[in-house]
Each structure stands twice: as C-alpha cells, then as structure tokens.
UniProtKB/TrEMBL annotation:
Enzyme Commission numbers on file: 2.4.2.21
Keyword flag DNA-binding: no
Taxonomic source organism: Paenibacillus borealis
Keywords: Cobalamin biosynthesis, Glycosyltransferase, Transferase
A Pfam family: DBI_PRT
Gene: cobT
InterPro entries in UniProt: Nict_dMeBzImd_PRibTrfase, Nict_dMeBzImd_PRibTrfase_bact, Nict_dMeBzImd_PRibTrfase_N, Nict_dMeBzImd_PRibTrfase_sf
Protein name: Nicotinate-nucleotide--dimethylbenzimidazole phosphoribosyltransferase
Active-site residue list: E318 (proton acceptor)
Lineage per the UniProt record: Bacteria, Bacillati, Bacillota, Bacilli, Bacillales
Function, in words: Catalyzes the synthesis of alpha-ribazole-5'-phosphate from nicotinate mononucleotide (NAMN) and 5,6-dimethylbenzimidazole (DMB).
Length: 353
C-alpha cells in the first residue's frame, strides 16, 4: 500500500516555469498598469504554472465533500451532536446544504464521499469509500491504525483520479464531520509544533468553558499518542481523522494529475499540511480560497506558505469557501483570454523614465 502512495508522490512534478513566465508576460501586455489586478495576477500566474498554459480554462469543476465521524466527540468538544454528520450527508445528497447552493452558482458538481461516517448511508450518488465507522477517541489512544490512515489517503487519491478521468478540470476540497476541528487542530499542533492553545478554535461555536476543555483534550491526545512530527501518516493515524486523511490523498491525486485543487477552510488546511509533508511539491497545486474564522487557520496558511483570496469570516466548511472562489478563478481565466493588449487596443504603455 505504501508503494501505491510512493508511486503517486513520484508523479508530482514542480509547476511549469515556462508557463509561469508566459503568464507574467501576458499580464504585463494587457491594458492595465502592471500589477494593478493585485492578487488576481498572482492567481493567474499560479494557475498557469499548474495547468501548463497561460490561458487556462476549467470546464468541469468538482467539490469533493469527505464525510466522517470522530470518536473524540465523546469528550464534548463540539457544539453539535455527532449524528449531525450523517444527517448533513443526507442534506448534501438532496442538494440542500450551503455548498450545494454555492457549487451550483459556481458551476460545480458536489460529490459526497463516505470515508468514515458512523451510521449507514445508501444513495445512488454516494461515493462509498468507508474505511471504518468513525475514529476512536484520540484522547484515549490512537484515532485509527496506520494502515487505516493509509487506506483513507489512498481512497482520496482514487477519488481524485476518478474525478479527473470523468473530466474534472479543477477540484475543491470539502468536508463534513462533527468534531473535526479538534482533530485538525491536533494535526496542526503535531506537524508544526504549535501549542494547542494557539491552534484550537471554537468550531461550530462552543463557549469559553468548552473551549478550555477542547484545548485540554487536544493536549492530552498529543501527550498520550506522541505523534511523530516527521511522519505525516503517523500524525494522521494518531490524532487525525478519516476525512482529513482522505482530503490529503485527494490533494496528492490532484497534484499528480496536474489539476488545481482549491482548499476550503481549517480542516482542508490540516489535510494540506499533511499532503505538503508527504510531498512538498504538491503545494504548487493548491489554491487557498479563504481565511476561515476558525482560530489557527491564519497560522496554518502561513505554515503552508499560501495567501488566501477571500477573508469573509466563513467557518462552515463543506467546501463553501472553495466554491465561492470559483468566481474569482473564472474571472482571472477570462482576464487572460479576453482582455485587450496595449498593442491590440492601440493604448500607450507606461512612460520610461
Ligand atoms: O472550514 C472551517 O474552517 C470550519 C470551521 C469550523 C467548523 N467547520 C465545520 O464544522 C464541523 C466541525 O466543527 P466541530 O465544532 O464539530 O469540530 C465540521 O463539519 C466542519 O465542516 C468548518
Ligand atoms: C448544521 C451544520 C452544518 C455543517 N456543515 C459543515 N459543518 C456543519 C456543522 C453543522 C452543525
């Protein structure tokens, strides 16, 4: 199984430098002062490097929502009961969740993956990749075995590969899992050596008292499991989650296929940290859509070395921020394709001094 992962990682190549240079030249030839489209210009250059062309376009767009349950919920770390995970899974499948609305508006389809929901779920549209029924309580022992974490990562790789095979040109990470901000914070602490107090946030909206308890739970999980910071699979197995591991795999699969992968919020960021640890070059294929309202996400993005496009205080997850970002991605693609150049429009360039 490890060799399957090594094979995927081996296929991840750096971004296309020539396309990056061509995109920069094109941006400077367009009828605007150089750099005046701000971070949209950086986005255009990044997309060119990923896709290998300076005028990319993304037809089929897919939001992959990975859903799983978390044993750590028994510690009382969320504002909501665990059964919300499976209930929301039904909502995604019937098209009524926020991400369904935003994906429709952004021209994307939503694919729900059961990678570890506790309850039973059956639907013709569901992608069933259940590794196990939720994790164990990481405050008492490892969340899952190393083999299960690896299976979840490879399931994510496979979902990316299948999506690309059926025509997807851009992937968006989404997730659903009551308790998963606890696991994501623990992954951030373990991989980056950050204190729990800095990494842990309010998730679905816990009060001060529960927040203090959640910090203590993460501290305990780290203390009893001693995840190896240099071994991302160990970290995912001991203090991660099935959807976090699955999304790490999805990101690696996207990078191997040279498909851009738009990251959503805090949980997607934890998956991205793990993907980056497994395959540093995968970072070039990631686009950070937004800074989540979840404490720790800003620091997470700094550690990833990514600058987010939006800062709207979103803290919903599901892939909502990523889906919103599709509008900006479409905008830069159109800029690159449709804007006139100084030459074609007969506009004078900057005066040389
Ligand atoms: O994406 C984010 O940044 C984000 C921040 C806070 C909460 N969430 C969502 O809320 C759920 C986890 O919250 P909690 O409090 O149960 O850990 C999970 O389903 C996530 O999708 C997501
Ligand atoms: C209702 C609800 C919807 C969500 N979507 C993602 N996480 C969620 C958490 C809750 C509680």
């Amino acid at each position: 199984m490890i060799s399957a992962l090594e094979e995927v990682i081996g296929r991840i190549v750096p971004a296309d430098e020539q396309a990056i240079l061509r995109a920069g030249d094109r941006l400077n030839s367009l009828t605007k002062p150089p750099g005046s489209l701000g971070r949209l210009e950086a986005l255009a250059v990044r997309l060119a490097g990923i896709s290998g062309v300076e005028q990319p376009s993304y037809g089929k767009r897919t939001v992959v929502v990975m859903a799983a349950d978390h044993g750590v919920c028994s510690e009382g770390v969320s504002a909501f009961p665990q059964e919300v995970t499976v209930q929301m899974a039904h909502n995604f499948l019937s098209g009524g969740a926020a991400v369904n609305v935003l994906a429709r508006q952004g021209g994307a389809e939503v694919k729900l993956v059961d990678i570890g929901i506790g309850g039973d779920l059956s639907h013709p549209e569901l992608i069933d990749r259940k590794v196990r029924r939720g994790t164990c309580n990481m405050a008492q022992g490892p969340a899952m075995s190393r083999e299960e974490a690896l299976r979840a990562i490879l399931a994510g790789v496979n979902v990316a590969e299948e999506a690309v095979k059926s025509g997807t040109e851009i992937l968006i990470t989404g997730e659903m899992g009551i308790g998963n901000t606890t696991a994501s914070a623990a992954v951030l602490c373990a991989l980056e050596g950050i204190p729990a107090e800095t990494a842990v946030g309010r998730g679905t909206g816990i009060d001060d008292e529960r927040l203090r308890h959640k910090i203590a739970v993460v501290e305990r999980a780290l203390q009893i499991n001693t995840p190896d910071p240099d071994d991302a699979i160990d970290v995912l197995a001991k203090v991660g989650g099935l959807e976090i591991a699955g999304l790490a795999g999805l990101i690696l699969g996207a990078a191997a296929a040279r498909v851009p992968v738009v990251l959503d919020g805090f949980i997607s960021g934890a998956a991205a940290l793990a993907a980056k640890a497994l395959a540093p070059e995968s970072i070039h294929y990631m686009i950070a859509s937004h800074v989540s309202g979840e404490q720790g996400h800003k620091l997470m993005l700094e550690r990833l070395g990514l600058e987010a496009l939006l800062d709207l205080g979103l803290r919903l997850g599901e892939g909502t921020g990523g889906a919103l970002c599709l509008h900006l991605i479409e905008a830069v693609c159109r800029i690159m394709r449709e804007m006139a150049t100084f030459e074609s429009a007969g506009v004078s360039g900057a005066e040389s001094r």
